């Protein structure tokens, strides 16, 4: 906790200096509070107010079971004092996806199979804290200020992560792996099997996931002519950071999103399933991925090292996840509760003798959704993916909200690919970023403000 408090004050000092510099140069600083909160997401700035007792010591699901007072909620209370907003709790048409999440939370709380309702509450607190803050920011800032806030935050985080990645593993200074995360030195070496950069995160996979998301945003900015030189420089830095994570999934996802965004930026009005999309999109991606896996200097990362062990661990998690699903197929066992369900099930405890499986979330985000929310939640997840991609594609074709539309498509692709290999997409350090892009993408894709304001491809 002391380390987080110190980190908070350091970040506050940096942003205060940033504000003063902008003030002296007579530049707009209205986005800096928003940027500050976004910057704090990976640092997980929150204060525990209630710690329920559970059998699962390390976690009861992909989120912790602890109830936190979160930084965006504190910022929201401050904003509520400073601004009047009578429509704060009104339901908007372009927030249907959020209604689905709240519906699943309500079902989970009433679910008789849910043995860890405080875990569901912890998830709900996270969602509500961030969405409340985003709503207030939406009413306070215009689209350009929102983009500037995200850009400033991701710029700071990407440069910081790159510097830390150079210090370890390139220079071998292991001290930097423990600055922001306790036990980071163990995760950075994958328990002594394979070194990789972790930056400010707890594992190479989390850093790789964030870096790929940031790459999608900066490439979208570059394609739309927004701060082109700076965007391409940061894109290169994030690409180098991804390389230093030695994360197989991050390598694959990075290649796929760059090719996809490049194709869609020029062909959004064309059907996705066509010969043109195959030859200009699918085929180039397949060729590059084949080279990456079998012919490139990174081939050993895919074909040797600890690849077999990782594949087996994911197969074991698949078996466990499907076993959970069969016990409550319609509505699952409750959001953020699957590990506690396993540890409290005598039948499953007899079958599972691997501590890794019972103490680590299922390494498959899609399977977590299926196990915890059942057919109902998984169906909504699939519908969300398809409708979001379609809406983003329409936005790009109409030259409206293009940066956020491209970023959202990148985010969805990342969640699809990463979702098959890891639970990082629904972790505390990443899921709020999903809420960030999805919230503002849907807000501005609904043409709720004048078109000339929403258009960002200048």
Automatic annotation (TrEMBL):
<keyword id="KW-1133">Transmembrane helix</keyword>
<dbReference type="GO" id="GO:0016874">
    <property type="term" value="F:ligase activity"/>
</dbReference>
<feature type="transmembrane region" description="Helical">
    <location>
        <begin position="367"/>
        <end position="387"/>
    </location>
</feature>
<feature type="transmembrane region" description="Helical">
    <location>
        <begin position="63"/>
        <end position="82"/>
    </location>
</feature>
<feature type="transmembrane region" description="Helical">
    <location>
        <begin position="31"/>
        <end position="51"/>
    </location>
</feature>
<feature type="transmembrane region" description="Helical">
    <location>
        <begin position="94"/>
        <end position="113"/>
    </location>
</feature>
<feature type="transmembrane region" description="Helical">
    <location>
        <begin position="252"/>
        <end position="269"/>
    </location>
</feature>
<keyword id="KW-0436">Ligase</keyword>
<feature type="transmembrane region" description="Helical">
    <location>
        <begin position="399"/>
        <end position="418"/>
    </location>
</feature>
<protein>
    <submittedName>
        <fullName>O-antigen ligase family protein</fullName>
    </submittedName>
</protein>
<dbReference type="InterPro" id="IPR051533">
    <property type="entry name" value="WaaL-like"/>
</dbReference>
<feature type="transmembrane region" description="Helical">
    <location>
        <begin position="278"/>
        <end position="300"/>
    </location>
</feature>
<keyword id="KW-0472">Membrane</keyword>
<feature type="transmembrane region" description="Helical">
    <location>
        <begin position="196"/>
        <end position="223"/>
    </location>
</feature>
<dbReference type="GO" id="GO:0016020">
    <property type="term" value="C:membrane"/>
</dbReference>
<feature type="transmembrane region" description="Helical">
    <location>
        <begin position="150"/>
        <end position="176"/>
    </location>
</feature>
<dbReference type="InterPro" id="IPR007016">
    <property type="entry name" value="O-antigen_ligase-rel_domated"/>
</dbReference>
<feature type="transmembrane region" description="Helical">
    <location>
        <begin position="424"/>
        <end position="442"/>
    </location>
</feature>
<dbReference type="Pfam" id="PF04932">
    <property type="entry name" value="Wzy_C"/>
</dbReference>
<feature type="domain" description="O-antigen ligase-related">
    <location>
        <begin position="234"/>
        <end position="382"/>
    </location>
</feature>
<feature type="transmembrane region" description="Helical">
    <location>
        <begin position="119"/>
        <end position="138"/>
    </location>
</feature>
<feature type="transmembrane region" description="Helical">
    <location>
        <begin position="230"/>
        <end position="246"/>
    </location>
</feature>
<keyword id="KW-0812">Transmembrane</keyword>
<feature type="transmembrane region" description="Helical">
    <location>
        <begin position="6"/>
        <end position="24"/>
    </location>
</feature>
């Amino acid at each position: 906790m002391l380390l987080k408090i110190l980190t908070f004050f350091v970040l506050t000092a940096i942003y205060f200096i940033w504000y003063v510099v902008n003030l002296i140069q007579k530049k707009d600083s209205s986005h800096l509070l928003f940027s500050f909160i976004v910057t704090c997401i990976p640092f997980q700035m929150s204060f525990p107010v209630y710690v329920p007792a559970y059998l699962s010591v390390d976690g009861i699901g992909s989120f912790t079971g602890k109830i936190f007072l979160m930084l965006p909620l504190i910022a929201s209370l401050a904003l509520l004092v400073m601004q009047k907003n009578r429509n704060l709790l009104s339901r908007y048409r372009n927030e249907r996806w959020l209604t689905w999440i709240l519906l699943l939370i309500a079902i989970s709380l009433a679910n008789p199979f849910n043995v860890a309702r405080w875990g569901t509450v912890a998830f709900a607190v996270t969602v509500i804290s961030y969405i409340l803050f985003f709503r207030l920011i939406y009413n306070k800032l215009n689209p350009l200020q929102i983009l500037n806030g995200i850009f400033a935050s991701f710029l700071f985080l990407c440069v910081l992560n790159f510097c830390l990645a150079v210090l370890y593993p390139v220079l071998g200074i292991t001290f930097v792996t423990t600055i922001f995360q306790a036990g980071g030195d163990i995760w950075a070496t994958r328990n002594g099997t394979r070194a990789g950069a972790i930056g400010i995160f707890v594992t190479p996979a989390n850093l790789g996931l964030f870096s790929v998301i940031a790459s999608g945003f900066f490439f979208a900015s570059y394609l739309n002519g927004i701060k082109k030189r700076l965007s391409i420089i940061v894109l290169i830095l994030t690409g180098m950071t991804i390389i230093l994570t030695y994360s197989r999934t991050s390598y694959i996802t990075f290649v796929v999103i760059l090719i996809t965004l490049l194709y869609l930026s020029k062909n959004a009005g064309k059907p996705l399933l066509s010969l043109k999309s195959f030859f200009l999109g699918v085929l180039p991606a397949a060729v590059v991925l084949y080279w990456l896996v079998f012919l490139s200097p990174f081939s050993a990362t895919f074909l040797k090292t600890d690849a077999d062990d990782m594949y087996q661990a994911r197969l074991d998690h698949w078996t466990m996840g499907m076993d959970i699903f069969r016990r409550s197929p319609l509505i699952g066992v409750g959001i953020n509760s699957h590990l506690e369900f396993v540890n409290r099930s005598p039948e499953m405890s007899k079958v599972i003798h691997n501590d890794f499986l019972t103490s680590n979330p299922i390494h498959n985000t899609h399977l977590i959704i299926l196990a915890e929310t059942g057919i109902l939640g998984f169906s909504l997840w699939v519908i969300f993916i398809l409708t979001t991609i379609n809406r983003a594609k329409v936005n790009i074709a109409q030259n409206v909200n293009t940066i956020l539309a491209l970023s959202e498509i990148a985010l969805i692709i990342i969640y699809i690919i990463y979702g098959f290999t890891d639970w990082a997409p629904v972790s505390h350090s990443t899921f709020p970023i999903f809420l960030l892009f999805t919230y503002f993408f849907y807000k501005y894709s609904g043409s709720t403000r004048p078109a000339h304001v929403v258009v960002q491809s200048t």
